[in-house]
Amino acid sequence: MSSYYSGSVSQLDLSKLAMLLPDQGCIELQQDKPCHTHDWHQHDINETLIIIKGRIIFSIGDDVITCGPGEYVMLPAGTRHKSTSSEFGCIYAICFQDVRKALYQEMREQNHD
């Protein structure tokens, strides 16, 4: 079973999402309507989801995690998971890689300004 990571990047300036882009590729901006469920699935690549607005509930194995604005979940390739947006819906960025290093670097730079 793959492990996952979660945390908070509440001080991340969302206008700087460009720093999370891969050398070649994109970041997906996803909007889920209220109570929308993405049923159990997995990906062949790492996936980091950063919540921008609203809340979302992730089921990862036996764990259930609720994330809100500024929080993230990093799912290594092969991690089986599902998600359901809150009754108000959810907007989040999906980065197709592990971006924790970039997130923490940005937070360190902000704290030194």
From TrEMBL:
Domain of life: Bacteria
Organism, as annotated: Billgrantia campisalis
Gene3D superfamilies: Jelly Rolls
InterPro entries: Cupin_2, RmlC-like_jellyroll, RmlC_Cupin_sf
Protein name: Cupin domain-containing protein
Chain ranges of the Cupin type-2 domain: 35-82
